[in-house]
Every structure is written in structure tokens, then in C-alpha cells.
Write a structure and sequence with these properties.
It is a single chain. It contains eleven helices and 45 strands. The chain folds into two domains: 670 residues, Beta Barrel (Maltoporin, Chain A); 105 residues, no CATH class.
Length: 896
């Protein structure tokens, strides 16, 4: 890690000093007992609907649930909900800095939660359902239709409930890995202001929010606003970010300075065409690996309850987020040949430079750095905007029955705009002798520079969502074990997705790009019943309590048809303090509208070279390869069977102690992806219906005719037979599967002491098995060692009167990688371990210091670098986990 400022140490001392001096300041004033919030009434407790069930006043039978309360949220010190979720061991982003870095319009443009680390990261949907107060959020992303949890203002969040189990029998699509539900404040009275400032080497962050509300007898209204900002980080700001040729130890990139010429494996440095290692550089130094962010978010709530049979509640939110990155200087590589290939006969290229050795008069690949012409920076921006409104009307039907109507409407807009040049036009200009690639400052280049500059890699995605739901629930009968509770209802939904995407478009032509549109309608019926066989009235030896539940939901989609998903659960307590539980169910993930052919029409890619060769068929000189890409036709839902078994131990003789263990098993099939064309051995052996080797002209034209302007795209390769090596269909389809199982475990203990209390909390996940299948009918491949298997979060803390302090150890286990000569035969990525510190002091008494709190966080206390990977892994250069290093955060909050 680079150490560039002594102020970091000063910041640490300053934070420690604040925490140390606050008890002294507090001694000068009266310190009455802390004012506690009013307890919930029996009626309010009975009206609570826990995540994972439709029933009021009961927990979902058999399911494992993780909850983050307000105290835990404060201790994490997260500046966004995505950072908050990164503290949960069951998420794929654990112990990593969430990052929105769309360096192309085809990449992920949102923070997408992923419970259980299930496949599908490149697709448009998600196997994790994100809710706010039980409502879905509108989709976000350019090629995605998934909500971004950062849409919710942090000041409005009261707690987070995570159900680590399939939930399609209750919620419908996407609840395969689990459900994340952000529970917001129901009412608020007063003013609460909070601020936090963070600092690290070459990095700063600011987070501020204010919540204002008023509660009367029957009405409560509040609004919460949040502003968040942080710096960008360049590769040069962190030593572990690097692009190297690990076999030689030299920088990897050739698009540097004066440039280079490559012929086969020989590199010639410009301007003198000197054979050797070439002009090398590490382009990651001048690129941002962690873009800057500016976010505004607002959340409002209104609740009306005059004690009558009808209550009304409405929530609304708005979020605007801008991430800005820097791609560094524009770089490019183009091929130049001694003869112009576009003109019949022999027309020499006036700019071609001969090497004068064994590679004389060969085609050359010229690597260029355009900084002398276009500057040192290329701007990259991702802009997200989303809003939604969720009204809820509740009617008391009498005798414990209730009707709830829930409405939901929202929209999302996501835009990626990254500056670039027109590489295709540049290649043509170089080949035809109209651009000098060896000397970019050649005055002749200035005349054609406007033809290739001021272009964008651009993408715009718009999502719209409408749904309305009616639920009736109540007690069907009374048994000795308790009330038999039942719920039933129906839902109607409408979804729409629009996109316009072009990897190379003139900045002036963006607004003229056409939209591709896809939409669908969904109707659903659902129900749930919970039967308490044993309970308070009929407990007996070995049967302290026993509850059985069953739920089911039928969804009918206008684009692919219907699917029914049941679930069964059981919770059994043989005695007070031991709870055994289990579930079995079916879940599904609907095809994203972004993955279908309507939103992503088929496109022909014609390559004048062989990009992915068949190991069993040798290509002939001059052959081309043609690839059909785009969204899939007739996509089916991705289906899962999930089951779990677990137990909770909470002995009455040991208050404050809770230990849990849960086994889960997921069988997930029909995953949507593109055929693995860039894994030729798999593609050519298993996807025999997706390609034709050495096709006839008629076969090439038949494929191309499926695409507008497709015949024109392939026309250069249908002049004489034998010009095409292969045609391949790489459109998205249902093909893959994954089987995984593992263990979740936790232990929590809070022990009162003479000075306050000490507490510990352990949460973790261990993956037992993981096997993946490339296509239905193929064998499963064991990939468990290529994944992070062991994840652990351990907290130890103490409360001393008004002061609370804790330390958290986060462990992200290592995993295996394929040893290659290019990565120095590295076979394993090491674990990533960090220590985070937190302290909070709450002032008591009256006057200006009343309800004032100070917080101090240190993330990554020992400034640990992320684990090394000798190469590029998931777009990360030289490292395997995104981290910004040690960060100090100072916070203050005040209630009025």
C-alpha cells in the first residue's frame, strides 16, 4: 500500500482522542438513564409481518433468517446499503468494496446482491430478491433489470431482514438464493442529523443525512435525505494494482509512448523499429479502478391510523447516483500491411515501414497511444436514477381477519457513456494508407482525426414496473397448540424494459439511436397456512412446540407461461431453548427482459480471422469466422429445488446466548447464459447444434438472413466457397446448472458486567460442495476449490456506560486458480483477512449535548493489501478482491 501522507496517522490520533475525551466531557453534566423508545403494543406485535411469510405475528416456519438492527448498521459504518450487505458472510461481495465500474456498456452497471454466490453474474437478472417493506424495487442497469439497493436512503432504514432460503412460494420470481428486505421506519417524530467523514491515502468520503418527521395521534409523516460522495482511486494510488508480464517482470502493455510494432512474438519499439522488449508501460497507473461517486437519495413515509378499521400507509423514494471514472489515454492497436487489401492489384501503403529482417514485408500490428492528440484522460460515467411509490391500505374485517391492498409503481434509468475512438474506422484508415500509425503527430493524421474521435461506448436502459397485490389473512381455527393461520391472495404485475446500446457511436448521434423494447404481464395466485400442533396450551415432554407450514404460488407470465412453486416448513422445539427447523421448496428466476431477443436483437459478427478454433478442424489461410450474438428466443425460467435443516440453541439459564447451525442444499438448473464459445473444447464437443464447420454459402446466408443487414455483413465472405471456417450461434439460452450445499453458523453472547457488558458475535459460511454443468446432459464438474469456501466474521466488544467499542475480524477464504506460465504457475489465491474497529459515545443529560453521539471507525486497521493474482482476474489487475485500504471514519449524530 502506498504511504503518501502523514495526515492519516494524525487522523487516527484525532479519532482516538475524541473517544477518550468524551467520557471526561460527560462527567461535567448529569447523566440520567438513556431514554428508550416506547415498547410495541400487543396489537402492533401481532400486526408485524416478518420477511418470508404472508402471516401476521408469526415467523416463517423452518427458515433461517439473518437480521441487522440499527446498532449493527451503525457499527458497520457503511456509506451505502451495498457496503452494508458486504458485511454479511452469505453475500458474494463479503469483505470487498462494492464497485460500479462499467468500463463498457455490456458490463454490470449496478450493485447487484448475490446470496450464496450463485452463477449468472453476466446475465440480466438476479437469483436474490431485494425488497423494501415487502415491496419490489424497479429494475436498474443497462443490460440488467435488477434493483440496486443503494436506492434507499440509509437514514430511513430501521433494520434489514435476510431470509437465506428459497422464497418463490411467497414472493414469486428471483427468490432462489434468498430474500433481502429493508425495513424502514414506520413513524418518526423530531429531527435527526448524521454526518460521517472518511479519509485514507489519496481518498476521502463524505456521508450526511437528515431525517425530519412529525407524529400526531392518527398521522405520522417523515422524510429522510442522504448525500454521499467519495473520491476516485487510480492504479498508481495502490501498489497492488498492476498489469505485468509476469514471465519477464516487465509492464504488460505495449500501447505506450511512441508505440510498438508486433509481428508474431517479435516486438519492435518505435520510432526506430528496435527489436526487443518494446516500449512498455502499466496502463492501470492512469486508470481508475475505484471510480468516484456522488449520490442523492430521498425517502418519505406517511402513516394514518385513527384506531378505526382502515389504516393507510405510503412510502416513496428517489435516488440519483453518478459514478465517474478515467480510462486514461486513448489507446488502440491496428494492422498495417505493405499492400492495400481493399484495392485490386498492387497498391503499396505509403506509411508501411519495413523491419529489414526476417519479418520484412509482413503484416504488422501497431500499438498506439493517442495522448499526444487526444489528451491524457478518457471520461467514463455511469448515471443511475430511480424512483418509486408504494401505497398500502389495510382493512380490519373482524374476528382477527385482515385485508391488505398493496400497490407499487416505479421506474429506473441507467446510462453508461465512455469516451473512445472508432476502432473500426481507424483500422480501415490504417490499412488503406490514410493514417500513419507509426507517427501520430504526422500532420496528415490531423485531417482524418475527426473521423475517429468524439465517439462513445454508450448504453441506456429504462425499466418500468407496476404491480398490485391483495392479501387476506386471519385465524382459521383454534387448536390446543394455538391458532391455525391462513393467508391467500393474488397479484398483477407489468414490467417493461427499453434499451439502446452501441459499443461505438458518435456522441452527436446518441439521441437518434432507436430503442429496443420488451414487456410482459404477470398474474399470480398464492396462499399459505401455518398449523401449531403443540404450543403454550398443550406442551408436554419432548414437545415444547411444533409448527408446520405450507405455502404455494402460481405465476403466469405472458412471455413464457406458468410455473408453480410450493414450500413446506417445520419448526420443532423439544424443550425450551432448543429449536429444530427444516424447509423444502421450489423456486425460480424469471428470464430477464434484458436477456430476450426483443430487447437484445440478434447481431452478426464477422471476423476476418479465427477467434475460437475447433481443436479437431484446422483452419485454412484466409478463412473468416461468423458469430451470431444477442438475446435468446423462447427462454424458460431458471428453476431451483432448495432444502435446509438447522437448529438454534438459546438456553433460558444463559440469557443473551444464541448459537445456530444451518445446512442448505440448492439444485439450480436451466441457467441462462451464452454458449461457451471462448472455451472451444467445451463448445465444439457439447454444443453440436450451435455451429457448422466449413459451411456452404447457402448456410452462411441462411444464418445471416435472420438479422437486419446481416447479408451485407457477411457479403465479403460469400464470394467463393470455402471462405468461412465456421458459423456459430451464440445467443443466450437455457443451458447450465449448479448444485451446491453448505453450512451457515453463528454464535452470539451478551454478558452483563459490573461496568456494562461484554459481547461477542460470530457469523460464518462454509461451502461443502459445488458442482457445475455447462449444458444439460453433460457431466458435472467439481468447482468447489475454485470458489471461496470459508467466510467468517467475528466481533468482540464491550459497553462501558455511554461508550461502546468493538473489533471485528473478517476472513475471506482463498481459492484455487489454474496454474499457467503467464501467471508464474500460481495455483492459489490467498485468503483476505481484515480487522475493523468501531467506537461510539452517546452523550446523556439535557442541553446541547443531549442525544448527541460520536462514532469512530477504522476499516482494515492493519492496511492489508488484497490477495495477489498474477494477472487479470474478473477485470482486476494484479489482485483478487477490491479494497481501498485502511479508512478512518469520524461520525456525529444529533437528535432534536
Amino acid at each position: 500500500m502506498k504511504r503518501t501522507c502523514g495526515s492519516v496517522r494524525q487522523c487516527a490520533l484525532f479519532g482516538v482522542s475524541i473517544i477518550a475525551l468524551t467520557p471526561i466531557a460527560a462527567m461535567a453534566q448529569a447523566v440520567p438513564d438513556q431514554e428508550s423508545p416506547p415498547p410495541l403494543s400487543d396489537k402492533e406485535i401481532q400486526e408485524i409481518i416478518v420477511t418470508g411469510t404472508l402471516l401476521r405475528g408469526v415467523a416463517p416456519a423452518g427458515s433461517e433468517t439473518v437480521s441487522l438492527n440499527a446498532q449493527a448498521i451503525t457499527a458497520v459504518g457503511a456509506n451505502s446499503t451495498a457496503q452494508l450487505l458486504a458485511s454479511v458472510p452469505q453475500t458474494a461481495s463479503f469483505n470487498a468494496a462494492p464497485i460500479v465500474s462499467a468500463v463498457s456498456s455490456s458490463q454490470i452497471t449496478i450493485n447487484r446482491p448475490n446470496l450464496r454466490n450463485l452463477p449468472g453474474a453476466s446475465g440480466g437478472g438476479s437469483s436474490t430478491l431485494v425488497l423494501v417493506d415487502g415491496h419490489r424495487l424497479p429494475g436498474m442497469g443497462v443490460r440488467q433489470t435488477v434493483p440496486d439497493p443503494d436506492a434507499i436512503a440509509p437514514g430511513a432504514i430501521e433494520r434489514v431482514e435476510i431470509v437465506l432460503d428459497g422464497g418463490s412460494s411467497i414472493y414469486g420470481a428471483d427468490a432462489v438464493g434468498g430474500v433481502i428486505n429493508f425495513i424502514t421506519r414506520k413513524r418518526f417524530d423530531g429531527i435527526e442529523a448524521r454526518g460521517r467523514y472518511g479519509v485514507a491515502d489519496d481518498y476521502q468520503s463524505v456521508n450526511a443525512d437528515i431525517t425530519v418527521g412529525k407524529t400526531w395521534d392518527a398521522l405520522s409523516v417523515y422524510a429522510s435525505y442522504n448525500y454521499a460522495w467519495h473520491d476516485s482511486l487510480y492504479g498508481r494510488d495502490r501498489d497492488y494494482v498492476r498489469r505485468l508480464d509476469y514471465t519477464s517482470g516487465l509492464p504488460f502493455d505495449l500501447t505506450c509512448g511512441a508505440g510498438n510494432v508486433s509481428i508474431g512474438s517479435t516486438v519492435y519499439a518505435l520510432p526506430g523499429l528496435t527489436a526487443g522488449s518494446g516500449n512498455r508501460c502499466d496502463v492501470s497507473d492512469n486508470r481508475t479502478f475505484y471510480p468516484s461517486e456522488r449520490r442523492h437519495s430521498v425517502f418519505t413515509g406517511l402513516s394514518f391510523d385513527d384506531g378505526g378499521p382502515v389504516t393507510f400507509d405510503v412510502r416513496a423514494f428517489y435516488m440519483n447516483r453518478v459514478n465517474k471514472g478515467d480510462g486514461g489515454p486513448v489507446t488502440a492497436t491496428a494492422t498495417i500491411a505493405p499492400i492495400n487489401p481493399f484495392v485490386p492489384g498492387t497498391v503499396f501503403n505509403p506509411y508501411y515501414r519495413n523491419t529489414g529482417d526476417a519479418n520484412s514485408f509482413q503484416a504488422q500490428s501497431v500499438s498506439m497511444d493517442f495522448s499526444s492528440l487526444l489528451g491524457e484522460h478518457t471520461r467514463q460515467s455511469t448515471r443511475l436514477e430511480t424512483w418509486g411509490v408504494t401505497p398500502t391500505l389495510t382493512a380490519d374485517l373482524g374476528s382477527g381477519w385482515q385485508l391488505r391492498w398493496l400497490g407499487n409503481y416505479g421506474r429506473g434509468r441507467s446510462e453508461v457513456a465512455n469516451e473512445k475512438i472508432d476502432d473500426g474506422t481507424l483500422s480501415t484508415l490504417v490499412l488503406t494508407g490514410n493514417f500513419d500509425p507509426y507517427n501520430l503527430s504526422n500532420p496528415a493524421n490531423a485531417a482524418v482525426l475527426p473521423l475517429i474521435s468524439n465517439f462513445l461506448d454508450y448504453g441506456l436502459g429504462k425499466n418500468e414496473m407496476l404491480n398490485t397485490r391483495v392479501v387476506v389473512d386471519g385465524s382459521l381455527a383454534h387448536l390446543p397448540g394455538g391458532d391455525v393461520k391462513i393467508a391467500a391472495g393474488g397479484q398483477y404485475s407489468y414490467e417493461k424494459y427499453q434499451s439502446r446500446i452501441d459499443g461505438t457511436v458518435s456522441a452527436s448521434a446518441v439521441d437518434d439511436m432507436p430503442f429496443n423494447t420488451a414487456s410482459r404481464r404477470i398474474a399470480a395466485l398464492f396462499g399459505e397456512v401455518q398449523v401449531p400442533v403443540f404450543g403454550q396450551e398443550n406442551r408436554t415432554g419432548g414437545f415444547y412446540s411444533l409448527s408446520l407450514s405450507a405455502s404455494g404460488r402460481y405465476d403466469h407470465y405472458s412471455d413464457f407461461g406458468g410455473t408453480f412453486n410450493p414450500k413446506f416448513g417445520v419448526t420443532y422445539e423439544p424443550f425450551d431453548g432448543l429449536k429444530l427447523r427444516g424447509t423444502w421448496g421450489k423456486s425460480f428466476q424469471a428470464p430477464s427482459l434484458a436477456d430476450g431477443a426483443d430487447a437484445a436483437p440478434a447481431t452478426i459478427f464477422a471476423f476476418p480471422f479465427i477467434l475460437f478454433a475447433n481443436p479437431n478442424v484446422a483452419p485454412q489461410p484466409g478463412q473468416a469466422q461468423i458469430f451470431l450474438g444477442g438475446g435468446g428466443n423462447d427462454l424458460k425460467p431458471q428453476k431451483a429445488t432448495t432444502w435446509s435443516l438447522g437448529f438454534d440453541i438459546a438456553p433460558p439459564s444463559l440469557p443473551g446466548f444464541l448459537a445456530t447451525l444451518n445446512y442448505y442444499n440448492i439444485r439450480f438448473k436451466d441457467l441462462i447464459d451464452i454458449p461457451p464459445v471462448f472455451n472451444p473444447s467445451t463448445f465444439y464437443s457439447l454444443f453440436t447444434n450451435n455451429y457448422v464447420m466449413n459451411p456452404t454459402i447457402a448456410q452462411v446466408n441462411a444464418l445471416a438472413s435472420q438479422v437486419p443487414d446481416g447479408l451485407a455483413a457477411v457479403s465479403p465472405y460469400t464470394v467463393v466457397p470455402g471462405q468461412v471456417y465456421s458459423i456459430a450461434d451464440g445467443r443466450r439460452t437455457n443451458l447450465a446448472a449448479v448444485n451446491t450445499d453448505g453450512l451457515d453458523f453463528s454464535l452470539a453472547y451478551d454478558q452483563p458486567t459490573g461496568f456494562g457488558s461484554v459481547y461477542t458475535q460470530i457469523n460464518g459460511n462454509y461451502v461443502l460442495n459445488r458442482k457445475e454443468q455447462a449444458v444439460a446432459g453433460a457431466g458435472f464438474v467439481d468447482t468447489v476449490k475454485a470458489q471461496t469456501r470459508f467466510i467468517l466474521s467475528t466481533t468482540l466488544g464491550a459497553a462501558f456506560g455511554n461508550l461502546r467499542a468493538q473489533a471485528t475480524w473478517r476472513h475471506l477464504g482463498g481459492w484455487n486458480v489454474a496454474p499457467l506460465a503467464s501467471n508464474l504457475n500460481q495455483s492459489k489465491v490467498k485468503a483476505f483477512d481484515t480487522i475493523n474497529m468501531f467506537a461510539q459515545y452517546d452523550f446523556k443529560g439535557s442541553g446541547a449535548m443531549k442525544d448527541l453521539s460520536l462514532t469512530f471507525n477504522v476499516d482494515n486497521l492493519f492496511d492489508k493489501d488484497p490477495p495477489v493474482y498474477n494477472g487479470s482476474l474478473n477485470s482486476l489487475d494484479g489482485y483478487a478482491v477490491t479494497s481501498i485500504g485502511r479508512v478512518f471514519q469520524f461520525g456525529i449524530s444529533k437528535k432534536f
